[in-house]
Amino acid sequence: MRLTACLFVIATLCLAVARPAAAEIRMVPEGNRHAEQPNVPGASVRRTKAGRTSFDAKYEKVRDLLASDRNLIAKIKQVSAAYGIEPIHMIGAIVGEHTYNVDAYDRLQAYYVKAAAYAGNSFRFGYNDESVGEFVQRPQFHSCAGEKTSYALWNCRERVWEREFRGRVVGGKAFPNNRFGAVFFQPFFAGQTFGLGQINPLTALMMTDMVSRISGYSRLDENNAAGVYAAIMDPDVSLAYMAATIRHSIDAYRTIAGVDISNNPGITATLYNVGNPDRRAAALAARNAGGEIYWPEENYYGWLVNDRRAELEALL
Question: Which residues, 6+ apart, have CB-to-CB distance to 38 below 8 Å?
């Protein structure tokens, strides 16, 4: 009896210690913080006008694609479960990308056909005559060598690029004042993303450890650009990278900023659109350090997802 009583007291004390830590995680409220949709960037507006369409028409097209393809919805649910996220987050990202960035194909099969068209193509990631594999061997990147995960490694390399190379002349070579991903990872034209999830190659390289561990796909290699594109263009593999990206954003905001964004698909969609969840979570944590509570805010892309949430959840 004494032993039982002691164990009960110890368990009670442990729970008492654990409760404050759990209480520090604040659930982000549902819905939008902005009463009206934030402005859509001019580039997205111009691209849509050039295609002689509208955002409403593009939204309806991708919504109808999802509504008519139960096989795709089943895959989204399966992958979401594997990564421990609600499928509405993946639906939101797909809808946002195909409403504001690209037009949806009428059938999922078209994504497979497009992916197959790139199979076997020969191209590389690099800038001018220097491949990215050669570039990251420069001494400025030596501090990144000890990173344990693909996300940490490429995140470190991205920070080095911003600090040491972006817009600078290094060793007699001038580097553009642009993002690391745009300079080294888009061999066709800047800003290019591919596939159902519209994933960029640098994001795929960051998430390859998680995708390999959870979904069992082969790890990606920056020296095999065709292999990276094959992964992000294949709808089945692309879904895994989408889920991993969303999972990381949720985890980053929970561990860095102490907020839970898992019930606000507008916020996860916003982060899917703008990237850099760790840096943004750190900025939110700093803003909240004074004691006031500020919530993460949706952009134009995430605003649409929250505004149409009921309609999008009906697809599931």
Answer: 298, 299, 300, 303
**Phi first, then psi: what are they for 179, rounded to 5°?**
-65, 150
For the chain, counts of helices (H) and of strands (E): 16, 6
Residue 14 has pLDDT above 50, yes or no: no
User: Measured between alpha carbons, how far is 7 from 88 in angstroms, rounded to an integer?
Assistant: 42
Dihedral sign computed on CA atoms, order 112, 185, 203, 311: negative
Beta strands in the chain (DSSP E): 26-27, 126-127, 130-131, 169-170, 173-174, 259-260
Whole-Å CA distances, 97 to 74, 174, 203: 20, 33, 15
Here the tokens at position 178 are 């642009």
Nearest to 167 by CA among 154, 152, 151, 180: 180
pLDDT at residue 191 is higher than 60: no
Q: Please give the single-letter amino acid code of residue 87.
A: P
d(CA 148, CA 2): 46
User: Each residue of 256-273: pLDDT tens digit?
Assistant: 999 999 999 999 999 999
Q: Tens digit of pLDDT for each residue in 204-213?
A: 999 999 999 9
